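Aim 2 progress update. The chain analyzed this quarter is reproduced below.
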Amino acid sequence: MRCRKCGGAASVEIRRHHTAFCNEHFTEFFDRQVERAIEGERMFTRDDRVLVVVSGGKDSLALWDVLRRLGYQATGLHINLGIGEYSQESQRKAEAYAAGQGAELLIADIPGEFGMNVEEFARATGRVSCSACGLSKRYLFNRVALDLGFPVVATGHNLDDEAAVLLGNLLHWQTEYLARQAPVLSGGEPHLVKKVKPFYRTAERETAAYAVIRGIDYIVEECPNSVGAKSLLYKEALNLLEQAAPGTKQSLYWGFLEHAQRFRAVDDPALRACVHCGQPTTSEVCAFCRMTERAAERMRIRKGSPEASAPLAGAGRQGQTR
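Predicted structure tokens:
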């Protein structure tokens, strides 16, 4: 393979574009894809402070790295989920990148603030771990962004992620979720921060290549709770299709975005402030507060505490950051 731009030896092949690049020109290509996503979807500008949710994996660290290289004001936020050694190693990777680059990293510690980890939330409330995890992360990055004045939150969801989510939603015709799937979820409501996905044009293999070329040390292991997740099955199915027909994922997701308006709800449900924490919700108490309070109550009942109805310590307060 030869680099499309300089004719030298290529290191990264991009079959969906029928092209290949050397390290230098792949990085240029990667940068352009990110800039096109940011500018085309009006995600943010260089005057905006961007809070990047950093798990310690390749996608989130690559996103933080490319935004900083391109001159955006990007601060990292790592949410420690309390999943044993996996969470400890994930945090170490995020902290090592921040220290090496002189970048600002905030830490939100779920077990430290709420007294139990996401697995314990799940067991106590009958949720699957991924559900409790997703709810916790969405709640915390919105709250931290609001408390610290960030107008936008960026996540490292890539083209593969978005195509897999879309496939799952289409297979089950979950129109409510289809209506909300987009590279930009505008806040538009009090206490609701804008959320963006600058990697929606970028395949997972490309973010991995970028991380390797840039020498970014990331956690390779998947979350232990993701074993058996349907999203991984959908990714495998799409990988088989992509192998036989390069561009399948791009065609599926970008095509959906062109026609997504037909799935949009005419009237979104009205939001109000949660009576406990003040975060936006469609009901009196937000889903996160309901989960934490139910978990705390069950834990107290098991321990025989007479204070079973007391709220979980830390609920509704500013997360621990540094």
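DSSP finds twelve helices and ten strands in the chain. Strands lie at 12-14, 19-21, 49-53, 73-80, 105-109, 152-154, 184-185, 194-196, 272-273, 280-281. These observations will guide the mutagenesis experiments scheduled for the next reporting period.
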